[in-house]
Specification:
17 strands, 338 residues, 3-stranded antiparallel beta sheet, alpha/beta, 7-stranded parallel beta sheet, Rossmann fold
Amino acid sequence: MSRIRLIPFEVEEIIEARNETPEGVRMIQAPEIWEDSEKGKGNVLAVIDTGCHRDHPDLKERIIDGRNFTSDFNGEADNYDDNNGHGTHVAGTIAACCAGENGIFGVAPEADLLIIKVLSEDGSGDYQWIIDGIHHAVDWEGPDGEKVRAISMSLGGPTDVPELYEAVKRAIDQGIPVVCAAGNEGDNRPETDEFAYPGGYNEVIQVGAINFNKEIAPFSNTNDEIDLVAPGVNILSTYTEGKYAKLSGTSMATPHVTGALALVANIAEKQFDRKLTESELYAQLVRRTIPLGYPKSAEGNGLLALAILDQFEKLFQTFNTTFNRPAKEDLFVSSKKS
C-alpha cells in the first residue's frame, strides 16, 4: 500500500517566546465562550499527526496519553515525540495552555490531548499506520474511563483507500467527529474541484482555510464537500524545542475546528442535559458559522464564529425590550384651529 503525507504547509517564522492569545483563536471567538464552555474541560481530542513535543511548557499538562505507530524511534510504541514540528503546531492550536510569563492559548485550553504519531520525520507514513491510529483513537480509554470526543487529521493523499474510509466511518459510527484538512492543492478557482483523502469523504468535517482578511486562501482546496473555513494563514502556535512558529495551510485551519468541538460540546450538552450524537454535534457546530460570500465549494457553511449565537440572542433581546409608550394624547397633534 502506498504512503500518505502531511497536507503541504509553509513555515513562515519560528519564534523563541510568545505571550498572547493567537489571532486565529480570537478570530473564531473562542475566548468569548470560554467561561460557558469551561475551556473544553472534560474532553479528549485525538491528534493524528507527526507526534507532539511532550515537554513543551504549554502542552505537557494537556497530554493525557499517546502512541507511536511509525518506524521512528525504532518503532517504540511509547515514544510519540515530534521530530517534524507539524503535530506540535496542530496540538497547540487545539489545546495549548499558557503555563507562565511566556506562552499561548489554544482554542480549548482545558481539553486533553491524545497524541497519535502516524507520520515520520519526513511527514509521510504508511496508510496502515493512519488506519491503525484511527482505530486506536476509537478504542482508547483513559485512566478514568475517558473516551475520545473528536479526531483531528491534518494529513491526506490523492488516493481513496477503502480501509481508510472504513476506519473513518467506524469512528463516526461510534459518535466521534473526524475533522480533516481540505488540502493545499487549490488553484484559487472555486469552480474547480481538488480532493485529498480523508478530507474528501462526505462523513468527515472538511475544513478550508482563510486569511485574517477573511479571504479564502489561494492554496485551499475547493470542492462540494467543504463544511466550513477557519484561519489558516500565518497561524501562531507551539513548535518543537519549546518554541513557537507561524505556519500556513489548511493543516492549520483544521485544529481550530477540532478545539471548537470541545467548547461546543460542553455548551450544547449542558443545554440538552445529555451527550450529543456526532450528527447533533456537527449541527451545533455549523450553527456557529457566518457566510463570507464565497461559493459553497470554497467556504461551505462559512467562517467558524463561536459566539455568534450569543450575539444573536442579545440582538433579539434588544428588539423584544418593552419600552415605555408615550401617552396617547402626545401621539397626535390636534388639527383644530382656535
